[in-house]
Here is the input.
Amino acid sequence: MLQSAAVDKLQQRVDKLGHILDVAKALVAERDLDRLLTMIVQSAARVVEADRCSLFLVDRERGELWSKVAQGVQMKEIRIPMDRGIAGAVATTNTAVNIPDAYLDPRFNQAVDKQTGYHTRSILCVPMRAVDGETVGVLQALNKKGEAPFSDEDEELLSALGGQAAAAVNNALLHQEIEQLFEGFVRASVVAIESRDPTTAGHSGRVARLSVGLADALPRASSSAGIWRGASLSSQERQELRYAALLHDFGKVGVRENVLVKANKLEPLELDGLRGRFETILMQEELYSEREKVKLLLEGRPDEAPQRLAAIDARLAARKLELNSMFDFVLTCNKPTLLAEGSFGRLDEIARATFVSPFNGEARPFLNEGEKLKLSIRKGSLTEDERREIESHVTHTFRFLSQIPWTRTLRNVPDIAYGHHEKLTGRGYPRSLKEPDIALPTRMMTISDIFDALTASDRPYKRAVPREKAYDILLDEAKRGEVDKDLLTVFIEADVAGKASEEP
Ligand SMILES: [Fe+2]
Ligand SMILES: [Fe+2]
Here is the structure.
């Protein structure tokens, strides 16, 4: 009989050790700190047959112990000074404490029981020691089930679990630190892009929110999702999309600033030069008229003088009007609006007109070749070369992102970002990819990027359009087969933009 009791006890011990081993495996695999802490306290309570268990982690910098307790569906953080109570004593001395009757121990803080209405009897509190001997936290078990207090064996088992838990917590904290470090790096990169091109401030963050919002809306939009019915992104793919969206325009740091922020066809300095040239021409005309007048007076024909002087003034006034009208026309052409067909002839005429250079006396055209080329841009404000330079930002982004040793779960970030200006028709850039080669996350980002570029109010070269108008423009693109029409339907019907704008 006695022997069988001993065997039972031994069997129980083997079971508990087996349980610790199982828990240890599960703990190592868990990277999420909240889930990990919950797992540890549940296992600890089971191993030592305690009514409840709590866990405190050491924050050496602040000299505190902290814990997370479940509050509804959320976890709330609580903090206590490191030298307080039983948990504090265990953390500072790095030795276990086993108290059969809490109310007889002066270290026990009865106020907590009064506050919670719980009655603490026995307490077993052990340090969670990492491999290097450092105390990572403490595990505290309350009220051993049954009448007896916690045994030496319980202490041994809880300490063993505490050691495993310490390793897992360190792992999860390290993982969290790496994530925070990377998150910080991404944020810093976004600051770099946006300080280069302040006109697109907030664009990266908004595109990320819209893209992730669309990814979240997709599985819920079963009827309108078309070919994407049933499709969804895993949490890792969602994170990939978020990073790709935050960094999609990073390559803009490789584009010359004056091209990037160009509002009109001529750069401000070029326009100043042109204004100066027209002023010179005007002064030359005035000078020429004055000379004519002097010559006339020297000729000594006073009877003809008044009419001829008036004729000179009239000619000068007409010339002034003509020059002003030319310059006004140049200013109109300089705006990035669509140029009418007839405009090119007039621009040619102005460009061909000549004046005498005050520097070398040679005849010079009113507009040089470069100016004529820029002013003749039919749509927008960029020349072909400048447009190509702006478009190169996508390749720069890809090159930059390819330098980062992404983890396995984030390895598609460079590819997703690389495709953000591709069109399903193959008319996008830089690779002219066709529909089958453009992945779902890239399509989500493309819609979000276009939508934000249209609705953002801070671009110098175009006015912000209202949300409904942006939808119409995108629907037109979808009709032409350029953007994914099913994703666009989800984007509009699920009000992804409305919800994203409400986010803090
Ligand atoms: Fe872009
Ligand atoms: Fe963009």
Observations:
- The pocket of fe (ii) ion (ligand 1) is lined by residues 248-249, 393, 420-421 (CB under 6 Å).
- The chain is about 55% helix and 10% strand.
